[in-house]
Amino acid sequence: MIKNRPSATSPVQRISEDKVGLTCRFSDINTLGFWVNAQTGEGYRITEDSLKSGHSPVIGYVSNNDEFTLVSSDPYAPISKARQETANLDLPVGF
Question: Is the separation of the CB atoms in 83 and 36 below 8 Å?
């Protein structure tokens, strides 16, 4: 985990654009937005339904590459914008 960046540890919430760049483990993601695996460049749309307990779809992620960075606070950001924001954060773009 990158130590200079804050970790997402509070309940499900909407966050502002100033939190873009937040990095944490997949299991610690609790904010809506478009997240990118910092090592593989895979993109994930984290919606309110995917974060609420007991709601579907519930996503599990098991990997040695478990570091994710918030690229956009909008989980439905257009792919072109998400790619640009990912590149702006010097992360690999693999989506």
Answer: no
